[in-house]
Amino acid sequence: MDGEPAHLAATRSGYDAIAGQYAETFRAELEQAPLDRAVLAAFAELVRRAHPEAPVLEVGCGPGAVTAHLSALHLDVRGIDLSPAMVDLARQEHPDLGFEVGEMGRLDRRDGELAGLVSWYSLIHVPAPHRRSVLEEFHRVLRPGGYVLIAFQVGHDTLHLDEAFGRAVSLDFHRLQPDDVEALLDGAGFEPAARMVKAPEPSSAASQVPQCFVIARRPLGGAWAQE
Question: pLDDT tens digits for 110-122?
Fold first, then answer.
């Protein structure tokens, strides 16, 4: 798309190229990750307690497994992804849920519309200069008392892939430090709620390095758009 940042175009085309193989490789990942499921369950309970009827959004939903899991936890949840191919897969695999193409830095949601927002390994594709504005966008669409959950790989480096699943891509995976993510959330107006770091799991295709889950809340106070 004309005028868009290069990392968005690269991420979109990369995941379009590997969508089917990615979905098949990681189809059972959540089923084999009890700590991940525990974090999602805690997040869902926090959201339901704060705003039982308000909607939730997963940004960077991929083929929709986490969105479907959140729905099974009794959240009114939809998913968005930058990759049209991923959105097509999500719609095919979870036809009872809503998925759309979208950019997490420019959400098509009203101010204060959401009770919760999940970024499950999607912030890792955002270069450092853009992360603060993405988190400020998360803050904009959340109600006071709403929660954000961010999952990411821990580290100081950036993993760059020119090839994945036999396809040519240009994908960057920015490993992040928990303290840095919490500082960014603080700067975007959030207050901390919880943090968990999971040790590497050599048997997992997705967890070869430490993983971190951070839950933060938009503080109470102020008005938001009514439904």
Answer: 999 999 999 999 9
